[in-house]
Amino acid sequence: MSSFEEAETEETVTCLHLTFYHPGQGEKMMFRCLDFCRRQQLRADDTAKFGRDSSLCHYSLVDTRVSRIQFSLQFYRKLHSSEYAFEIKNLSKKTKLTVNQMELGYLNKIDLPWKCIICFGDYQILAEIQEGEAVDYFETHLHLAEAPILQERCLPSLQPIPENGISPSFPLGQGKSPTEIDENEL
């Protein structure tokens, strides 16, 4: 047998991709302590903490409006399953955290959806989970967004689109209510 045939089977690694945005990132440089160049490996039993205190947090944000520990992400394996997931917990007493517009108060936690937007203050973080098989560790890969994440996503329009495809000339919500028109009247 060749060494290729005897080699260990490669495991894929679960990777959490995090894309950061803040409107003042150009002048305030609050992301200067984050490593956007490479993937970072963490042990499965580590809790990835995000916040202002670099001695307590793996990922430090240089901003006095961020809590010492803002939130944490815990990697875990679901009970009676081979599936891995992340749990997000708000660790800030002063700032609420939202995950896909679900508000988390202090010490509230939920499972992180496979793709979601995390917000606190003016911060927006797009989190995307890339599934893997490794048991002992996971990776994070940080990215920096040039534009607001909430505007980049294709969110459904709040204005109805008529069947004929022509938008009304007046914007809704300015004292006029939509009226139903029979298609034969057009």
UniProtKB/TrEMBL annotation:
Q: Which domain of life is it from?
A: Eukaryota
| A Pfam match | FHA
Q: Name its cellular compartments.
A: Cytoplasm
Mainly resides where? cytoplasm
Family (UniProt) = Belongs to the TIFA family.
UniProt protein name: TRAF-interacting protein with FHA domain-containing protein A
Segments carrying the region annotation (Disordered) are 165-186
Species name: Rhodinocichla rosea
Q: What keyword terms does UniProt attach to this protein? A: Cytoplasm, Immunity, Innate immunity
> Does the record's keyword annotation contain Glycoprotein?
no
Query: Which terms does the UniProt entry file under GO BP?
Result: innate immune response; positive regulation of canonical NF-kappaB signal transduction
Domain named FHA: residues: 49-121
For this protein's source organism, the top of the classification is: Eukaryota, Metazoa, Chordata, Craniata, Vertebrata
Q: Name one GO cellular component term.
A: cytoplasm
